Amino acid sequence: MRILSGIYHVLRREVKSIFEDRLYLASTVVLPLIMLLFFVVIFWDGSITKLPVSVVDNDNTVLSRNLVSMVDATPGVDIGRRDLSVDEANSELLRGETYGYIVIPDGFEDDIVGSRQTSVNVYISATNLSAAGVLRRDIQQAVKTFSSGVAMTRLAAIGVDGYQVMAEVMPINMQTHTLANPYMNYGYYLAPIFMIVGVVVFTVLATIYAIGRELRYATAPEWMAAAYDSLPVALIGKLLPITIAMMIMMQLVMFIMFVVMGMECVGSYAVILLASLLFIVAYQAIAVVIVAVTANLRLALSLGGGYSVMAFTFSGITFPIMAMYEVAQLFSRLFPLTYFSLIFINEAMLGADTRYSFADIGALLIFIPLVLFVWRRLGRVVRNSKYWGKD
Predict the structure, then answer these.
(1) pLDDT per residue as tens digits for the range 307-357
(2) Which residue range(s) make up the domain with 240?
(3) Of 6, 254, 327, 335, which cross-links 227 as Cys (Cβ 3.0–4.6 Å)?
(4) Does residue 187 register a pLDDT over 60?
């Protein structure tokens, strides 16, 4: 009963502190909600469409205009001006007004009619790899379709039947099956990770601030007194409100993805729920370690923020972990986000058997006992006044 009473007193004191301290309330409730709304607005459309592209049509014939129309009909391309010179089109690209331009040579139609090979030059800005990938895919597909149409028309004109025409034009028919994200929706791919990284940042910062403010304002004796001078009771009571708040944020992320944005959860939501809890507690454990080691609120917040943001780089979302150097692959294992992202992808997107998530769940569990390595120092920090009152 004494343990439960201590947890209750610390918990009640902590909830009161959250609502009395505007910075504490902002980092725990207000800013995470704003962050979620921000990413919902950004990724609402999901797919990259209608990227501006200009055309330099030096031929200006029926066939060249047909090709431009086919390119313009693709979802990723929005053809703008079609009467530019190469210098003008390049200037637009350099000014950031377009993502690329297409150059159709003079004699384009004559070469096609005369059964001579011709070429179309496409210039794409790769400063944004996502946009460049969409343009390259859509323009290439449109040009291939146009070329196939020309070849089919020519073969049909000499009496080749329909089936033979298709066999001549496309002897190998490739069928591509896109798994996990069949709509190639960037919202399904990036939105959950961005929102989860935001939750990570606020989890770490709020946890560091919750403990660090007791040192900064020399209120650690009151905190420990409410816990009957029991460090485990003091930590549980202090961290529990943050755990609950961030678990709610994680469930809001899932609600946004699976209900608001229409993403289908094809695996076990129970596994995602369990992993979410372990994920939050793992980052809280790391935050406690940072505070215990530094015993300085300002330094701890800086280190915690840096560690949280670095997780996005090494999580394998922006760059595949298997393609990293071996040292970077090992470094990626130092972040709970790496394991949670694998669990989320397996359960929510791939629908993999739950047993494939066991190893990653175990990895999340490993982070939690890290607190034990700094336990004695943390006890000294919260009980010794020489650590109090520092920025």
Answers:
(1) 998 888 887 777 778 888 888 888 889 999 999 999 998 888 888 888 989
(2) 2-44+185-387
(3) 6
(4) yes
Interval 106-126: pLDDT, tens: 998 888 888 788 889 999 998
- The domain total for the chain is 2
Residue 194 pLDDT > 80: yes
The total of other beta-carbon atoms located within 10 Å of residue 192's CB is 25
In this prediction, residue 27 carries a pLDDT of 92
The radius of gyration of the chain's CA atoms, rounded to the nearest angstrom, is: 29
DSSP of 122-179: EEE--SSHHHHHHHHHHHHHHHHHHHHHHHHHHHHHTT--HHHHHHHH-SS-------
Tokens of 329: 């692959």
Cα separation, 132 vs 117, whole angstroms: 26
Q: Is residue 355 part of a domain?
A: yes
Query: In 3-state terms, what secondary structure has residue 333?
Result: coil
Answer positive or negative: Cα dihedral of 48, 52, 57, 62: positive
pLDDT of residue 135 exceeding 70, the answer is yes
In-domain check, residue 326: yes
User: Same domain for 78 and 37?
Assistant: no
pTM for this prediction: 0.83
314 with 331, same domain: the answer is yes
Mean predicted confidence (pLDDT) in 168-176: 67
Does residue 139 sit in the same domain as residue 15? Answer: no
Other C-beta atoms lying within 10 Å of the C-beta of residue 60 = 14
Are residue 139 and residue 247 in the same domain, yes or no?
no
Contacts by 20-23, CB closer than 8 A, 24 or more apart: 21/213, 23/209
Domain shared by 95 and 233, yes or no: no
Amino acid letter, 364: L
Q: Are residues 245 and 150 in the same domain?
A: no
- Alpha-carbon gap, residue 247 to 302, rounded angstroms: 23
Sheet holding 77-79, edge to edge: 77-79, 51-57, 100-104, 121-124
| 372 shares its domain with 263 | yes
Please state, in angstroms and rounded to a whole number, the distance separating the CA atoms of residues 51 and 124: 11
Tell me the HSE value of 169 on the side-chain side, using a 13 A CA sphere. Answer: 20
Is 253 a member of any domain? yes
Q: With contact defined as beta carbons under 8 Å apart, do 307 and 334 qualify?
A: no
CATH of the domain at 137: 3.40.1710.10
Residues 165 and 72 in one domain: yes
The predicted structure's pLDDT at residue 166: 66
Rounded average pLDDT over 130-152: 86
